[in-house]
């Protein structure tokens, strides 16, 4: 190992992450250190994997929903406003993951190579072995995660073949061959799956302290490790690092994408595979019984959030970012103007119409009891949890929000620059107990999940419906129907009539598919899923975003923003700069 000479381009990790502009292949001379420098500097070595964590795309909200039929931005300079309006290009791509994820993989590959040679402790080879296993496992799991994001952002059809990205399974140095063609999508998926299994072989299911000596894995007992040694490396102090359970979730996420219509050509991952990977994960959570009863409002469950010390998660959240301190930035972006916010994300009428009536029927169904003259009455309770409609309350004093064009406040339709363009404001994700009044600003703790359990249940429901039919259970004892029934019941939908609509379609695979997709749309709205879902489902990208304009107490549906997407845009582009540098790369068709 010590004969391997790779350059490590790492000066101060946080500086690299924050600046984001240092070229990995042309580091400043004073920052060049070869890999052997890390062997006796554990903090330097661990900086490699810290860089991987810092580059995870879901370290903050993207709000790419504003480029879909679910929402628009009220800021014409917003990247997603412009993307949805036809300004998405190979050299202008706010969804670009090429540089970020490839840089992360480079650092992770360096960590994998170095891990077996780093002295993490003073004179304790046994603990060094355990540290090396954990960090290597984390690196493999993170490498799978970044491959997933690369395929999601840049995988696509080129010359009739479904391509992924260039696989990087070893560190690159200045002598590496960079002008390489893209690997196939299938090859990239197999690399991802292999990395997940490597991670699972090295990591515990969860980072928790074990109470007895006989729970120390045999491979470490053979080295002389005791319970305290194990807990030091794999115990609760490591919570929120990538665990075996998280690696299983990443595998299920990637398999759902690969099995979907836009990516299934020339790819061996099937709906059965996706259902099995998600089902295996959910069995560990107790199946349908494990659905969190507080999963609807995890972002505002004050008692839960205030007791999240020590890396503990709410029952709804598998993996999250660190809490940080109290803040009010999210509310400042999205609160209505009368609550001193900028109202950035405006939910669409399209999304509002997707919420069924409280009895479970779609509002277009004759049994829905929907009243166009009183459109928000008797609706799915999630509508008022997630969207501020006309007459809703918001903010720390529960002020009534009037979105009418002639309502007399800046909350009204297109009244000022920061007013709503659709007649709606976002409520989900926001802490209504944040006060933005300049005379008495106060923030609150916020939770930013990377993976929620509800997402995992919806992955299973979608894949199981395709693989086994609506009521088929595979080998797991629960079906797509079971999952959707439980999720809707948690939301308060169909409670009074036994969810008659769901019962009416429980044997109709196509109708169940439509319902599952709609439940995913509602449950995960504003969390950055809709943009990718529309594309992997190979659906129409150009449905205009509509709004609800109220004037003289009369509401009217209006077209707010057309979506300008070509059919080829179900796949993202390879960055133009990469194509100009490397002629072996192929661009996705149409870009």
Automatic annotation (TrEMBL):
* Residues in RagB/SusD domain copies: 335-591
Please state where this protein is localized: Cell outer membrane
Ranges for domain SusD-like N-terminal come to: 62-211
Q: Name one Pfam family in it.
A: SusD-like_3
Q: Which domain of life is it from?
A: Bacteria
Record keywords: Cell outer membrane, Membrane, Signal
Q: Which InterPro entries match?
A: SusD-like_N, SusD_RagB_dom, TPR-like_helical_dom_sf
Signal peptide start and end residues: 1-21
The record's listing under Gene3D superfamilies reads: 1.25.40.390
Q: Which family does it belong to?
A: Belongs to the SusD family.
Quote the protein name from its UniProt record: RagB/SusD family nutrient uptake outer membrane protein
Organism of provenance: Belliella alkalica
Kindly list the organism's lineage: Bacteria, Pseudomonadati, Bacteroidota, Cytophagia, Cytophagales
């Amino acid at each position: 190992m010590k004969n391997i000479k790779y350059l490590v381009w790492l000066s101060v990790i946080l500086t690299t992450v924050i600046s984001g502009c240092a070229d990995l292949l042309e580091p400043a001379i004073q920052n060049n250190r070869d890999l052997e420098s890390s062997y006796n500097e554990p903090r330097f070595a661990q900086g490699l994997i810290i860089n991987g964590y810092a580059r995870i795309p879901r370290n903050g909200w993207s709000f790419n929903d504003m480029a879909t039929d679910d929402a628009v931005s009220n800021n014409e300079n917003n990247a997603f406003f412009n993307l949805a309006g036809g300004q998405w290009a190979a050299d202008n791509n706010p969804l670009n993951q090429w540089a970020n994820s490839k840089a992360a993989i480079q650092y992770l590959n360096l960590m994998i190579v170095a891990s077996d040679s780093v002295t993490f402790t003073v004179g304790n080879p046994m603990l060094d072995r355990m540290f090396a296993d954990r960090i290597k496992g984390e690196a493999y799991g993170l490498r799978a995660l970044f491959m997933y994001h690369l395929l999601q952002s840049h995988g696509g059809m080129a010359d009739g073949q479904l391509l992924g990205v260039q696989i990087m399974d070893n560190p690159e140095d200045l002598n590496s061959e960079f002008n390489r063609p893209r690997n196939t999508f299938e090859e990239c998926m197999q690399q991802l799956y292999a990395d997940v299994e490597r991670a699972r072989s090295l990591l515990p299911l969860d980072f928790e302290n074990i109470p007895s000596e006989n729970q120390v894995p045999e491979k470490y007992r053979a080295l002389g490790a005791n319970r305290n040694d194990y807990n030091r490396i794999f115990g609760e102090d490591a919570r929120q690092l990538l665990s075996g359970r998280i690696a299983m979730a990443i595998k299920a996420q990637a398999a759902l994408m690969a099995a979907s219509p836009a990516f299934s050509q020339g790819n061996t991952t099937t709906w059965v595979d996706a259902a099995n990977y998600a089902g295996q994960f959910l069995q560990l959570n107790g199946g349908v019984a494990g659905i969190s009863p507080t999963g609807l409002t995890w972002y505002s469950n004050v008692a839960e959030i205030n007791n999240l010390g020590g890396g503990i998660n709410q029952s709804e959240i598998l993996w999250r970012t660190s809490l940080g301190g109290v803040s009010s930035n999210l509310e400042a972006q999205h609160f209505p103007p009368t609550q001193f916010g900028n109202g950035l994300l405006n939910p669409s009428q399209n999304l509002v119409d997707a919420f069924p009536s409280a009895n479970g029927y779609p509002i277009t169904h004759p049994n829905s009891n929907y009243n166009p003259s009183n459109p928000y009455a008797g609706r799915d309770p999630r509508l008022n949890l997630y969207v501020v409609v006309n007459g809703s309350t918001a903010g720390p004093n529960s002020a009534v929000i009037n979105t009418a064009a002639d309502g007399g406040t800046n909350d009204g339709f297109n009244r000022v620059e920061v007013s709503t363009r659709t007649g709606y404001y976002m409520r989900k994700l926001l802490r209504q107990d944040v006060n933005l009044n300049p005379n008495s600003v106060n923030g609150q703790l916020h939770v930013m999940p990377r993976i929620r359990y509800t997402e995992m249940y919806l992955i299973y429901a979608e894949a199981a419906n395709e693989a086994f039919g609506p009521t088929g259970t595979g080998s797991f004892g629960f079906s797509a129907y079971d999952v959707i029934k439980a999720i809707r019941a948690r939301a308060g939908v169909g409670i009074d009539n036994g969810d008659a609509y769901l019962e009416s379609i429980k044997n109709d695979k196509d109708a169940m598919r439509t319902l599952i997709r709609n439940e995913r749309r509602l449950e995960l709205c504003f969390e950055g899923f809709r943009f990718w879902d529309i594309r992997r489902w190979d659906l129409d990208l150009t449905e205009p975003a509509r709004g609800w304009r109220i004037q003289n107490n009369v509401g009217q549906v209006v077209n707010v923003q057309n979506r300008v997407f070509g059919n080829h845009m179900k796949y993202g582009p390879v960055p133009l700069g990469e194509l100009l540098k490397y002629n072996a790369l192929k661009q996705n068709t149409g870009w």
